[in-house]
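We modelled the chain as a single entity of 837 amino acids. Its sequence is:
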Amino acid sequence: MTLGFVAVFWIVGAASSSIFEGPAPGLKAEVAATAHFWPDHWTAVLASALWARNLPGYILGTVLVLLVGVPVERQIGSLKLALAAIAAQVAGVLAATGVWEATRLLMGSWARGLDATYFLGPSAMVYGSLLAATASMGPLWRRRIRLGLFGLLILLAFYSGGFTDLVRLGAGAAGALLGPVLLGRRPRLRRPVSSRHEGRVLIALLVAVSAVGPVVAGLTPHAAGPLAVLRLIFTDIQPVDPQTLQSVCAIPAQHRECEAMLLQLRAGGGAIFMAIVPSFLLLLLAEGLRRGRRAAWFGAVLVQAALSVLALITMVGVLQAAGPNTVAGELVDASRVGGRTHPLTLVLPLLLPVILFAVLLACQPMFPVAAPRGTYRRLALRVLGLAGLLGVLYVLLGVALAPGFSPDPTLADLVADVPDRFLPLGFTVDLPPAFFPESTPAVLLYEGVGIAFWVISGGWILTSFLRPAHPRSGADIDRARAILRAGRGSSISWMTTWPGNVYWFSSSGESFVAYRVIAGIALTLGGPVGPGSGTGDEVNEFAAYCRSNGWSPCFYSVHTEVREAASSLGWDSVQVAQETILPLAGLSFRGKQFQDIRTAMNNAAKAGISAEWVRYPAATLAIQAQIQAISEEWVADRKMPEMGFTLGGVEELNDPEVRCLLAIDVRHHVHAVTSWLPVYRDGRIAGWTLDLMRGRSSGFRPGIEFLIASAALSFRDEGFDFISLSGAPLAHAPGEEQIRLRDAGPDEAGRLERLLDRLGSALEPLYGFRSLLAFKGKFRPLYAPLYMVYPDSAALPGIASALTRAYLPDLALRERFRLAGSVLRRGAKTRGASGRS
């Protein structure tokens, strides 16, 4: 189908002599899609896809069709490709025409721009069929392609605003809606769930689009989109019209304005770069946001706040009837509908920076990654030093090149002009300069100082985002890792090295506790890590430290020895998880009880699937991309956000000491992945703890069983003592739950245990913790309870809130109410069942 369309595309173009310069005027009126296609030119709705504007249009259209059409046709089939392409083409033209009808009443300048343009080419079919095909892709690439492509289409439609841009956007939207229908399933209407990493990518994409859009509008002749006026605020790229220049320069009283326009007319790429400095900075900050950098978030907030203030000032100027030679005046002219200014055309574009500012503020928890201590203090000093050096250089060379300027600048003129060389063009264009460069060396100096400053500074900013991230104190994490390797920790102690934790060190300096303070609760991740003695003293000392800071301590997910030490101090406790441990000495999956495990391993061998150890930081990009895709698919299948705290994700794999075991076939296709954390005992790795455990929905089904069994046998052969299949939160060993509920008394701990049981039951459909524990039971492990210990029952509401925010930091308020309602309903059912029994 794809190759047939390409052949028809070129045959029709050659037969109508349209390949080099497009269809002749008479033919163009019949085949080009416009806002006036009905009723005389309705055939242009489909015919417009078979012609292009010129030879480059034919070449680019062919390349686009082949690049997208061939893989899409192989993926969804020829008939579905044809249906998606035709439906997208028709829907795109109809949608663009509908927008034109609406804008005639609201946005006159945009309607005039749409009325003067037309659509030719196969691009609408290509975008529509590609977005339809995303319905058959995994969540990661489906989301990335849709957001990337829609970001591009929306950018062009709202900033450039041509009829062609609207047709492509409408075709893309139609393809995205039609794709699930073609594949025989309903479109997903619920809010998509993504991991923290993917959420950062999406926010970065939003910031990048907001940065590039005004530049596109500024560089596009006759841009008429509803957001095109933002180029006057963001970039101030204002191409000089020769007729306007002639009329202005003919008036002696406007000689300053004439000189400024002459300068802008002579200015080349240097002036354009200085005009788009805000967009340049936002693109750099978008890369930092993608990496989760806190400094990038802070910088983006500052830039958007400045642009929001500038937009507010501009809006006030518009309301006060700004003059014709100001930015506000140009906004008034651009927003006139039928001879009057429509407020909607001004308010909506100027609200965009405010909306982005609010989005960044709301998403602040997604960007916790800090640079090494002192990074930005040194960066600020370097930037200031660079500005001083370039300023001095500008003055000295300016004095030497003074005859190349008009008029000749004095030393005082050059010194006064230094700040303007570093400011974006939009901040200086309304103030005519005191002198202009005439000679080539003078122009290079005049424009080059600002370009050199921002390019070098931008490189330094980007480098700061690329430097390895450290927690708040790099010395603390290094010290904690040294204690962890030399001492004795629990099976989850390696999780204390994850981001988000801070460290308390005992007075002896031999032990530490990893914790995070949430709503006044010092919530620990496991118990004290150290030589293994004096646990009671360490618990007491840490509690005293918390009291001195006004916090309430809570040791979470600790073993029996810490519980007993805390109990001797009068603390209460409650079981919160069940750990499963598999000793490796003499391990062999023989006997009837391991039948499922042996079946998984045998089926893997028959399918050509093997277990392969990798370290994620050293893995190839192809392997890393597949692991990310598997993880995103797993997250998207959940109705709630990805959990954290004691449950790691892809970000926690980026550690050279964490081992990953992959189920991979002969085509290097990854079917499942597990990650294993080291457990140190007295200076050696005694065992490994299972953390990440995710498989591809369309891959080898028993992939996780195969990987766990393969890892156990591999670790046994390497001489390790045990593996921990980690704890299952809010779950209990078989037969234990009823005993606990029967023995739980009327005290606070008993009520908390019943509440946690209800919470586990409510979360089971969402996260499947109890099913996970049952799955791990296939390996016939030993069970070890994990406890939460706390000194004061009055702090239990705060502890519950802290645990929720630690496990679900990205949980929205609506989802919190939904979860609470689910717990209450589950609790009511449990009480009702108990009363009947």
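As a brief sanity check on the tokenised model: Confidence is low (pLDDT under 50) at residues 323-329, 336-341, 736-746, 830-837. The CA atoms of residues 422 and 648 lie 45 Å apart.
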